[in-house]
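Protein Entry — a single chain follows
Fields — amino acid sequence, structure tokens
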Amino acid sequence: MIELTNSRTRRLELMLLLQEKYQMNSVEISDFLNSNNIKTPRNKIYNHKIVWSNIKKCKKRLDRFNNDKIIDVRERIFIEEL
């Protein structure tokens, strides 16, 4: 699994916090981020589409991480003559 940088992780956690705890929508979150001079990883301003897609991808990533489990284990035994 590819690890995210600390700055990306903090931005995503902030977006999730604003959405879940403060019930903000994507437009409000983008306005909040832009008013606090928080830029995208490519140093651009946020819009509602970027915020929405980041939240969606983050939730999918968390679901995959939380739902990982071992489905099946297979073992093989090989016998060779000496």
